[in-house]
Amino acid sequence: MFQFVWSLAAYVLLSCQPIIAQNAFPGAVGFGAIATGGNGGTTYMVTNLDDGGPGSFRDAVSESNRNIVFDVGGYILLKSAVSLSSDITINGQTAPGDGIGIMGGEVSASGQSNIIIRNLRMRQGTLDSDTGKSAFNMGSASTVILDHCSVAYGQWDSVDAVGAINITVSNSIIAFPIGQQFGAHVETGPSTFYGNLWVSAHNRQPLSKDDTQYVNNVVYNYQAGYTSGNTGGNFSHDIINNYFIAGPSTTSPSDGYYQMDSEQSVYAAGNYLDSNKDGALNGAAANVVGDSTVLSSPWESSSESLAKYSASDAVTAVLNSAGASPRDEVDTFAVSAAKSFGTSGTIYESQADTGLSNGGYGTLTSTSSKERR
After folding, report:
1. Where is this region: Disordered (predicted)?
2. How many domains does the structure of the chain reveal?
3. What pTM value is reported for the model?
4. CATH code of the domain covering residue 189
């Protein structure tokens, strides 16, 4: 049977995206940046939107040491969770048209290591009958980086990282969790959350039961934002130049920091909270983090240099560029809510409640490079 595996040389000729031989990619940050993924391995071209078989995404991620590229754009509808292998790179930015998305099931890196994922849309939603799964699961995984990804409609969590070691989630949109309505759950760590947009979640943005870098994030329409939990243990948190913006679902704006007790050691600087829901970005400094123990300097030496933007400039940068590219209907909707600065936004129970096309998942035009010739 013909194997849809191309040589590295062929990929270099056909793609404008460079293969990075060391580190995840230029500009990668945080604890997951040391990932090399499948760079330097064989390149697998995804040629269809089927849930399995030759040329499918499921087949592409079934073996290690693969650099995965896409000759097709559109949604892949999962019939069951898809499990990633270790030592892979997923280059969603290579997909034509509106890009590539996974819907109706969990994408799982559980127990795997050395994974790079870029420009991938992961949207579980109620098409998945297993309410105990998440949109993206990297439980007990190690050395994982998600960059410019879009995660929505997670039923258990949007991002599950219980037991994960050395992870980064950067420049991504994490929006509209349903079910538990939770953003991300991290245990073990360390973890880095950088430059992300969090929209309309009940809690866990993230839940950090680990040593964490949390820099240049924007959290909108929360009921509880950055959380550690009263039974989380003793951890250190660098919380720098983030902006918390209350929305219609925010009942207590001060819960931008939630369940941060004296067992948590926090360096907080340059953070702002806009609590008045008046349609303008006009918050005030917010660097008192619950009852946590105050650190006079960051616990991680790289945290301050990671803070590329002030909190207000981070709002501009994140709203302009976070998420998968090109920005699609779901992400445009999330960004539009955040840009209302307090006047728009809902915590949903189902993707269908958004009123967006395709049952709430939004429409990604199905196309291939052949159609462009």
Report:
1. 349-373
2. 1
3. 0.93
4. 2.160.20.10
